[in-house]
Write a structure and sequence with these properties.
Length: 298
């Protein structure tokens, strides 16, 4: 599971991100990943020759969602990586434990955990359905904690152990809790996992960080929200997060390989600027940079 030092190819989306490190040979286990941001991150890693274990619920085609864990795996193999698609629920202890065992048995260990699975509901407190509240807590908070916990023994054995969670900085401006309390608590629970595990694992050689977009990102979850089709016209594509995640995990840019540290809440723009990207317009879906919708929590 020792990565190559060869630089991988430039991202087709950015045309500027030129990594100095590679994820070749590293094994990544990811929650979700059948589509959207998770699949983009996995595909970017697969282009280096990484091994990707996808734990996702979508084993059969969904009427409103594109792709399954199996079609995602086919895309990863076509990109140059190896893939192990697993149908499972990050909320279920047995599914997560089985996924971790399968990753170790198939690829010899785990180098990276990516906590990508997340549920969103921006309803205010009066309107939020408690089943949706429970779903967000179970997937976002418990799922992140559970997958990270189960993978810890394997991560400690890796020379490149890293947990990367797609969650925002812990911004305690009351604005965010006041706008959508249920969702804010769920996302901040993910971020507290980053904060706590970074401290807990600081002597174990395992890095723990979070990554969050500066702008709205085009995803199925956003498109399926009321007015979502119009919202994504002022969004960036998920490739910007794919490049940023790659930079963190492969150690690209001015931070240097392996020196991204731990317990940080990075934004995509921050990471890519450090990696030498100066023009973010190619990541946009058509709207000028000054018309993009800023993401929440920043």
């Amino acid at each position: 599971m020792t990565p190559s030092n060869d630089a991988s190819s430039t991202s087709a989306a950015s045309g500027q991100y030129n990594p100095t490190g590679s994820l070749k040979g590293r094994t990544i286990i990811m929650s979700g990943g059948s589509r959207g941001i998770g699949l983009a991150i996995a595909t970017r890693a697969a282009r280096d020759g990484a091994n990707i274990v996808l734990l996702a619920k979508t084993g059969e085609p969904h009427p409103k969602l594109e792709g399954t864990v199996f079609t995602a795996a086919e895309q990863l193999v076509a990109a140059g990586g190896q893939a192990l698609p697993l149908v499972g629920d990050v909320r279920k202890d047995d599914d997560v434990a089985a996924a971790v065992r399968a990753a170790v048995e198939r690829f010899g260990g785990i180098d990276v955990v990516i906590n990508n699975a997340s549920a969103i509901d921006l309803s205010r407190t009066d309107a939020v359905d408690m089943k949706r509240y429970d779903l967000m807590q179970d997937i976002n908070v418990r799922g992140t904690f559970l997958l990270s916990k189960m993978a810890l023994p394997a991560l400690r054995e890796s020379e490149h152990g890293h947990i990367l969670t797609l969650s925002p900085p812990l911004n305690l401006d009351p604005k965010w809790a006041g706008m959508h309390l249920a969702y804010t608590m769920a996302k901040y629970g993910m971020s507290l996992t980053t904060l706590g595990l970074a401290e807990e694992l600081k002597d174990d050689g395992v890095q723990v960080n979070s990554l969050w977009p500066c702008t709205l990102i085009d995803t199925a979850a956003i498109r399926n929200m009321p007015g979502g089709q119009q919202m994504v016209q002022a969004a960036r594509g998920p490739e910007i997060l794919a490049d940023a995640a790659h930079a963190i995990l492969a150690g690209a840019g001015s931070y240097g390989a392996g020196s991204y540290g731990s317990g940080n809440f990075y934004t995509d723009e921050e990471v890519l600027r450090a990696a030498g990207v100066r023009d973010f317009a190619p990541y946009s879906l058509g709207a000028p940079e000054d018309r993009l919708v800023p993401d929440i929590f920043l």
